[in-house]
Design goal:
Length: 284
């Protein structure tokens, strides 16, 4: 039995004629007639009899309407409950983000939670792309050049990056003929250090933060977003800044979540945070 058909029977019980029921439902009269006939076939009983110009419910039809009214009341109650919950500044927000973005945002996230103590922030720090379309997370702050068209997206910043080395290697670099390279998931190809220097990859990692620590410990060079490296005294920039191959930072979430007040408030807050952070992120 198609429970959606009950709304057609309810409308017919209320408005008595096919034209008036169809008008109330925003469909044509043939649709109302066909849906009720389908219910009668499924139940193997007549639900409606024609008496003159009006339609009257049979005994079975009256019983079906009584049950439908109970179901309709429960559905409306559920809708009010869910809508009320969505309009509250409470509940859980699951956020997936990289470690670098997480560290950058930590003071702002702490402030948000202080302002909204009834909202629980569940931060999943990962470089993996959790599936927002399957609602594995509510919100993602993600490095990407091709955000999904199925998601609501907001471009937050276009980071600049450069090649960095540890202090000791940076001092010896003019004399070094072959340079070790630590690559990450944002590195499309090995960089050109110029001056005929050879470069070969020794380590690959999916974490920019790990690559940064390896280079700071003296393990070759790597490409790092400038906002992550410029204030680290252990590192020295050895190239000009560049936008490629680093992807942009996007805020992404599922369209179904835009009606939730806590999601709207949090995404608005993040956009404002990145407006403040953007000059540092995009600086060369």
């Amino acid at each position: 039995m198609d429970w959606n058909g009950l709304q057609f029977l309810l409308a017919l019980a209320q408005y008595k004629t096919l034209p008036r029921a169809a008008e109330a439902l925003g469909v044509n009269r043939t649709t109302v007639s066909r849906r009720i006939e389908q219910m009668e076939a499924a139940l193997e009983v007549r639900l409606v009899d024609k008496t003159g110009r009006e339609l009257a419910l049979t005994t079975a039809g009256q019983e079906a309407v009584a049950a439908a009214e109970l179901i309709e009341g429960e559905v409306q109650s559920l809708q009010r409950s869910v809508l009320g919950r969505d309009q509250q500044l409470s509940g859980e927000i699951r956020v997936t983000l990289t470690q670098g973005i997480g560290c950058l945002l930590a003071p702002y996230l702490a402030r948000f939670q202080t302002e909204y103590p009834d909202i629980l922030l569940d931060l999943h720090v990962t470089n993996a792309s959790e599936d927002l379309q399957l609602l594995e997370s509510d919100i993602a702050l993600r490095f990407t050049t091709h955000p999904s068209e199925q998601l609501i997206g907001r471009l937050l910043a276009r980071p600049k990056m450069a090649i960095y080395a540890g202090q000791e290697l940076a001092r010896r670099l003019p004399e070094v003929e072959e340079v070790e390279f630590v690559s990450t998931y944002v590195t499309a190809e090995m960089p050109d250090l110029g001056a005929g220097k050879k470069i070969h990859r020794v380590i690959y990692t999916n974490s920019i933060d790990v690559a940064k620590e390896l280079v700071a410990a003296g393990r070759g060079v790597t490409q790092i977003p400038c906002y992550m490296a410029e204030d680290d005294p252990r590192l020295v920039r050895i190239s000009a800044t560049q936008s490629d191959p680093l992807p942009e930072i996007w805020l992404l979430y599922h369209p179904r979540l835009r009606t939730q007040l806590r999601i709207r408030r949090f995404t608005e807050y993040l956009v404002a945070c990145f407006e403040e952070l953007k000059p540092a992120i995009e600086a060369g």
